[in-house]
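Subject: Sanity check before I submit

Could someone independently write out the structure tokens for this chain? I want to compare against mine line by line before I put it in a report. The sequence has 124 residues.
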Amino acid sequence: QVQLVESGGGLVQAGGSLRLSCAASGSIASINAMGWYRQAPGKQRELVADIKSGGSTNYAESVKGRFTISRDNGKNTVSLQMNSLKPDDTGVYYCNAEGTYYRLGYYQTPFASRGQGTQVTVSS
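---
Independent answer below. Compare away.
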């Protein structure tokens, strides 16, 4: 299977910046899409941003112009640069990836994995 490990969360004042990173490991054959979701207390999990292997990106309206997603296909990593943070950005941020991996070392099999999550807290 494929494991995802996030890093970079923390506490920041409104208007500040944070950078989240996520690394995928395992018997990866290909990763089609990587992205970030977040879940605020009492709210449903929502897509923040994702990026396809070709580089096309998609952002939630609430973060457009403030967040930038990027990936390194060679290293199987994805990052989220978050600027001009607002208290509403507070939540647990989860890395997500979809692609194929080598099951039993040979068979390309689809996977969808999510990381453990990293807390982002923005104080007013």
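---
OP: Matches mine. For the report I'm noting this point. The mean pLDDT is 96.
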